[in-house]
Amino acid sequence: MKQLPEGALTEIAAYFQVLAEPTRLQILNILRTGERNVGELAQMCGFTAANVSRHLALMTQQGLVERESRGTSAYYKIADPAVFALCDLVCGNITRQLDRAAERRAAFTPPV
């Protein structure tokens, strides 16, 4: 990261904070396949509609998802698909860390 003012760092931290919640990651993963309404997301996640709505409000505020009203339902979709590139980058990093840890543990396993 280049030198950024404190306000920018605060915004970046807020964005990452939204991604630091497993339920929100689950919602993002579902929305990866297409838009859904709150009821569909709640059913697919196994949470209440109120809980999912609260998470979606934060995600909308940070610009991760967009909301569109249709009749009595609100539909949500990914606002910026670049969030998946970020998530894929992090997943790759975690996979590499786990692989290295497994290799270190294997050094202590006697050959069969």
TrEMBL record:
Domain HTH arsR-type: from-to ranges: 4-98
Residue ranges crossing the lipid bilayer per the database entry: none
Alphabetic keyword roster: DNA-binding, Transcription, Transcription regulation
Keyword Transcription: yes
InterPro entries with a match to the protein in the record: ArsR-like_HTH (IPR011991), HTH_ArsR_DNA-bd_dom (IPR001845), Metal_resp_trans_reg (IPR051011), WH-like_DNA-bd_sf (IPR036388), WH_DNA-bd_sf (IPR036390)
Domain of life according to the entry: Bacteria
CDD domains, A to Z: HTH_ARSR (cd00090)
PANTHER family linked: ARSENICAL RESISTANCE OPERON REPRESSOR ARSR-RELATED, ARSR FAMILY TRANSCRIPTIONAL REGULATORY PROTEIN
Name of protein: Metalloregulator ArsR/SmtB family transcription factor
Organism the protein comes from: Limnohabitans lacus
